Amino acid sequence: MTDAVRAGVERHPDRAAFVYLHEDGLGMRPEELSYAELDRRARVVAARLRQASKGDPSRPVLLLYPPTLDFVTAFLGCFYAGRTAIPAPLPDEPGERLARVSGILRDAKVGAVLTLPQYRQAISAWLAASGEQDVVCLSTGADEDDGTDPDLWTPPRVRGTDVAFLQYSSGSTSEPKGVMVTHTNLAANQEAIRSAMKTPQGVVAGSWLPLYHDMGLIGMTLQPLWVGGTSVQMSPISFIKQPGRWLRMIHDYRVEGTASPNFGYELCVRRVSEEQSAGLDLSSLRVALNGAEPVRADTLRAFVRRFAGNGLRAEAVLPCYGLAENTLLVSGNDPESPHLELAVDAQALEQDELRPARTDRPSRTLVSCGRPKDTEVLIVDPMTLRGLPDGQVGEIWLRGPSVAAGYWNRSELTAETFRAVTADGRAGCLRTGDLGALRDGELYVTGRIKEMLIQHGRNLYPQDIEQAVQESGDAFRRGGGAVFSVTDEASERAHVVVVQELKAWATSDEEALARLAASVQALLSRQFQLPAVSVVLVRPGVIRKTTSGKTQRTLMRRLFLDGGLPVLHQRLAPAVVALLPATDAAPEPTAAVSPRP
């Protein structure tokens, strides 16, 4: 990556490597960074790191920045110094984010922290309080000039097997773990992305994704650098406030490639008004990747339908599949062909088979995530470890140069996850924990093993139940649900629980809340043959998400069992009530307890 940036400096030093859009009143103010200036700042960071480091220089460097150009220069400065970088969210508020970064600090045995000058004092105090006396804290930034001469920099000696950075997983089903991405992994995946997306030299990419998440970092920040292009960025908060800003960015900068989880496209459909989209030209967009959570066919169709009048091509909206353990991309669709959808028999899917849908039975529509790129994909029975044929759902296993080296300081988990062997002896496989099937070379991702609901021998996917609930009434927030199961140890029976956010206008009428909860139970009994599902209705913002927008169902299950959810109304099966803390076992006055089936 360092060589790629330096090549860009030689070819076009004055070209914008990055453009960052700052909120400025109702508008956005651009800040540009040329290739020459990016290189100069990265060399300064590298020189300061070498001068100030204490102890073992192999210890990683933790980057704590808001999502601005200062993060990019610090990240590349670690590459220039031959140090392992750790992108992480700035812990600028107490609670979950601080706990996450504190966990990274302990797990990675960090040797240095880079941040902006205004955060240095607070972060130094945090390090001292954490007992990290030997961790140096350095401030960097455009305004931070301590006189370091960039010409003091000398290229580091880096091997392909050296760890370039640690990508801490988003933690959708477990505690975050540091994925070791080597320089060879990164180069291989950048080439896979370039080949799959047919990325042209000098591409302009634009995104609002977090820079410390793999899709935002590797796909939207480093891929443009890899091909001498320009990356245009804005903060996730700017996008959430006004989703139309993303589309305006595409128009203003003639963006050719972008990416978002499914919910980003949904936000644009719901919240970008006709007035806001009037005059927008989206015809420059060649690739709009949809990944990081199950891709919904209706979202793709709605987004294309809504913005086709603005020049958006249907072929540009591309489902893909990737994960940090494979650096990023595993599979993607051809940007010059429409994506594939597959209508399958719902009952057969519950038995792990993809069979064509029948008119007389319920069906599910699956979206192809395209063909694997530079990675061998195996579908494996997670219990017997046997390879499965086309059309059978099993665990997705991967082999190839993009598969990361393992988890930092976790040798047993690395062996279990990255060194798996199939029943017929195919070794060196990565177990993704994801479920899916291959059909005619196309990969269909169906869910996560840890989140699967097993009911009376049927395998149900939580996202299907969540979607059905949210489509059943206007009061339910789209993307604001979590479905999981809890087990009654006495009977060893798994009970399904639905936690669903309501829109703000639907949260005050007690009788209406009772009707909504009852309607969810009736719907799931009728559509999924799930009697007496426990229903918990909550306010907007209660459902926890990862940085990539995945629902944290495992965390929501733990919060529910700990009595940690702020409940508006609930209807719980008696066996589920018995699993809750004694102080919360009695339902609230507005709640009803459903009878046993």
Automatic annotation (TrEMBL):
A UniProt-annotated Pfam family: AMP-binding
InterPro entries for this protein: AMP-bd_C_sf (IPR045851), AMP-binding_CS (IPR020845), AMP-dep_synth/lig_dom (IPR000873), ANL_N_sf (IPR042099), FAAL/FAAC (IPR040097)
Swiss-Prot/TrEMBL GO biological process terms: Actinobacterium-type cell wall biogenesis; fatty acid biosynthetic process
Alphabetical keyword list: Fatty acid metabolism, Ligase, Lipid metabolism
Name by which UniProt lists this protein: Fatty acyl-AMP ligase
Protein family (similarity comment): Belongs to the ATP-dependent AMP-binding enzyme family.
SUPFAM superfamilies: Acetyl-CoA synthetase-like (SSF56801)
GO CC annotation, single: plasma membrane
Domain AMP-dependent synthetase/ligase residue range list: 8-408
Annotated organism of origin: Streptomyces cyaneochromogenes
GO molecular function: adenylyltransferase activity; ligase activity
Keyword Lipid metabolism: yes
